Amino acid sequence: MNMYCIECPNGCFMEITDYEGKITVTGNKCKKGYVYALQEITAPMRTVCSTVKTCFRNIPRLPVRTSGSIPKEKIFEVMNEINKITVSENVSIGDIIINNVLNTGVDIIATSNTYES
Ligand code: SF4
Predict the structure, then answer these.
(1) Gap between the Cα atoms of 51 and 63, Å rounded
(2) What sign has the CA pseudo-torsion 46, 50, 53, 57?
(3) Residues 68-87: pLDDT tens digits?
(4) How far, in Å, CA of 35 to CA of 27, rounded?
(5) Considering the entire predicted model, what is its pTM?
(6) Which end of the chain is more exposed for a tag (fewer CB within 10 A), N or C?
(7) Is residue 5 lining ligand 1, measured as CB closer than 6 Å?
(8) In this structure, are residues 27 and 12 in contact, taking their beta carbons and an 8 Å threshold?
(9) Phi and psi at residue 80, to the nearest 5°
(10) Best of 15, 16, 26, 32 to mutate for ligand 1, by most ligand atoms within 8 A of CB?
């Protein structure tokens, strides 16, 4: 399997081989790449960026993101939770919109204000 490491702008192209359960990673310039490759092939994680509805006419959608990474297979379930939300009070950047979404230990937070600062 081949993949690019996305841990830094170098974007190392890595080759991952699994020979009888022994994982070998080549092409990475540092240990972060090895850790990233192992994570990707065992339990891939992703951050999610999206928007939620608001009841403000001038800002009908508010940008949000996860406060950390969630398991890749939970993305659609998390998106369903995000789509249930309508923000009805002013919020600021960093405010929690959904606390501990789906018990992942990660919050959905605002990445914009609902008002002009
Ligand atoms: S392996 Fe290291 S140097 Fe290469 S992209 Fe990943 S973090 Fe950057």
Answers:
(1) 4
(2) positive
(3) 999 999 999 999 999 999 99
(4) 13
(5) 0.83
(6) C
(7) yes
(8) yes
(9) -60, -40
(10) 32
